[in-house]
Every structure is written in structure tokens, then in C-alpha cells.
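Dock flavin-adenine dinucleotide; give full complex structure.
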Amino acid sequence: MSRKAEPRRAYDVVIVGAGPAGLGVACALQAAGVEDFLVVDRHGIGASFDRWPKETRLLTPSFPSNGFGMTDLNSIHPETSVAYTLGCEHPTGAEYAKYLRQVAEHWELPVRTGVDVHSVETHHNGDARFHLDTSKGPLQARYLVWAAGEFQYPSRPFEGADLCMPVGQVKAFHKVPGDEHAVIGGYESAVDAAMHLAAAGKRVTVVGREPAWGKRSAEPSISLSPFTQERLQDTLQQHKGRLRFRSAEVSSVTETKDGYRIKAGRRSFTTPKPPLLATGYDSSLALLQPLLGTQQPELDPDTDEVQDVPNLFLNGPFVQHGESPFCFIYKFRARAPVVAAAIATRLGRDPLEMVAAWEEAGMYVEDPTCCETQCAC
Ligand SMILES: Cc1cc2nc3c(=O)[nH]c(=O)nc-3n(C[C@H](O)[C@H](O)[C@H](O)COP(=O)(O)OP(=O)(O)OC[C@H]3O[C@@H](n4cnc5c(N)ncnc54)[C@H](O)[C@@H]3O)c2cc1C
């Protein structure tokens, strides 16, 4: 396992979240010579991935291409390849969590699991700036890296959404009871759920406001990934008639004697089982609301430090600079060395060697506004 962290209370750096974002920053911090840091997680390493439905796989392909300077898209350390570790191109969530645990073990990252952070306050008390109230008692840190993700905070954006089942809470699509379903949402998770339900012999209606299935863009956070487009074509051919798509905004779900009535645009339809909810995620940043005052704080483009809260850094899918969302692993991992370099420098370490190694591996993006994608064909 990862290095067993001593139960101390005050650290130079505390990282909240042992997913790819938190561990990615931990790897970069360690490589920059920072020793006094701790990663905490309410569950375990890679807990969000361990909760994915059994059939769901990473969309971004893994390939052992590191030797040519094109580091495996899902790796969080330049010296690892997910494809090499796991022997597959599109790992399941459980497989990817296994890779994360191997990274933590190999680099002996100091991780404490079962530590749920309830709230964070700032005030000066000796060197510590951040005071964390956790399920295992208080923790203090001079620098805080928030990497608690989004997956464990599903959004419920319309009336009656509580009656629905978030796709992130489905253990396996083939085990969902019933043979007729509605999936609400228009992006990857909705289409993924619909395809697995159809493959399990069920009839599915997908309802989405701005459906990604009709869009084409070079930016993968706007249109469906090639992996999903290919699978969707196969599903439509193999399971003709089982999949239907409706483009409409869902405004409410109500329970009736026949099932669940979904109001979509001006029309309504009824489905016998609780609709599956694939409308995205709220952010764990909600927990920092008293400090941030907003859900989308301004970040220093040079460091990803929250502009109004000195020494608080973010990493993960909620990092956004201008029109560039950092919502995939290969995107936010490129900001991990930026965060680590800023903290290491302030702690009197020299991060240059680490930055050079991450940059050589294509895992370092200095200018976060550089990433708007244009493809010529
Ligand atoms: C179905 C699906 C498919 C996806 N496919 C891809 C893909 O192919 N490629 C890609 O790059 N991205 C993909 N993504 C997005 C990717 O999974 C996320 O961007 C990624 O998980 C974010 O990593 P993270 O470390 O920020 O968050 P997480 O992996 O969610 O890790 C956050 C950790 O923080 C812990 N935590 C949360 N709150 C607290 C708290 N209060 N106290 C203590 N610990 C806490 C959690 O237990 C968790 O372990 C996909 C997402 C989904 C849902």
C-alpha cells in the first residue's frame, strides 16, 4: 500500500482527494522535494472510479507511447503508462482505481483514507493557515490543495430529480430492474448508460437539452468521444429499435400510478421505472463556499491558486481558464506540476528538475489559455 501516514495534525501541505487530481499533485510535489505533505480521502484511493458502473470504461484511450514523448493520456506520473500497467486501452473504473493504488504504493505517497473533510477555515495560528474539520479530528496546513472532484456530488437540476437514480450510483447496468427506461442527460454518461441498457436487452429513451450526439467539435468536452461515437453506431445497428433520442429540456419528474412522468419541453411521457439521471455533477467546491463565495473562483493563471484565498490551490475537472476547461485527466494533470512548483518554491525547494521531467512528458501546460482546439480537417 501507499506509505502509512502518521496521525499528525499539522503539515506544510494537505491535499484533499486521492483521485487522479490529488495523487497527480502529490507525485509532482514529491518530485519537487516537498516531504511534509499528506493526502486525505473520505473513502479510499480512486474511490470515485471504484464506484463507476461495472460496464463503464474510460473514454480516453491508454497506450504505452511514453518512450516517444507522448505519455499515456490517462497516466498521472510521467514514468507510468496505464496501458502498460493494466494491459488495456479503455480501463473500467475498477481497473483505473487499481492503477492509482499502484502509483501510490510505488512512490510511497503519504495517504490517509477514511478522512472525510467536513469544512475548512482560514486563520493564522503559528504557520498554519488552513484548519480542516475532519471525521478523524482537526488537521492544519500552510498550503491546501483541493482535489475532491465532482463525481460524488451529482447534480439534481430540476423538480423531482430526487426521484431519479444518478448513473454514478448504478452498480451494473445489466442489473437495473425492468426492461424499459428513460435516461435524462445529453452527454457521455447518458449515451454510455443507454448503450449498456440496450445491450442488456432493455428499451431506452434518452432525453437531453443540448444533446452531444448531434454535435461535432474538436473539443472533446463538447461532442461525443470517438470511442462513444463508434460504440453508438454499433449499438444502433445491433439493437435496432431499442434506443430512442429526444432533444428537449426536462423540467420535472413526478411519480404517478403508472411510473414516472417526465415533462420534456412541451410534452410529457411516462416511464415505468425511476429515470436514470446523467445530468452531470455539482462540484465539491460547494464545501469551500464560505471561503470562496462562489462555485467558480478566479484562479491565478500562473499557479491555479484561488485569487482571493492565498495558498489555496485547485486541481481537477473544475479548473477552468477562460474558454479552456480542464475536465479530462490529460488536461488537469498538466496543471499538477504548476501547482506543485508554486508550493515547492514557496517552501524553499527548487522545482526545476520536476518541471523539466513533466514538460518532457507532455504533462505540463504553462499557459492555460493555450488549449482552445482547432482542427483543420
Ligand atoms: C462515466 C465517466 C467517464 C469518464 N471518462 C473519462 C475519461 O475517459 N477520461 C478522462 O480523462 N476523464 C473521464 N471522466 C472524468 C474523470 O473521471 C474525472 O475528471 C476525474 O475522476 C476527476 O478526478 P479527481 O481526482 O478530480 O476526482 P475524483 O476521482 O472524484 O477524486 C476525488 C476524491 O476525493 C474524495 N473526496 C471527495 N470529497 C471529499 C471530502 N469532503 N473529504 C475527503 N475526501 C473527499 C473522494 O472520495 C475521491 O476519492 C469520466 C467521468 C465519468 C463520470
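Observed: The radius of gyration is 21 Å.
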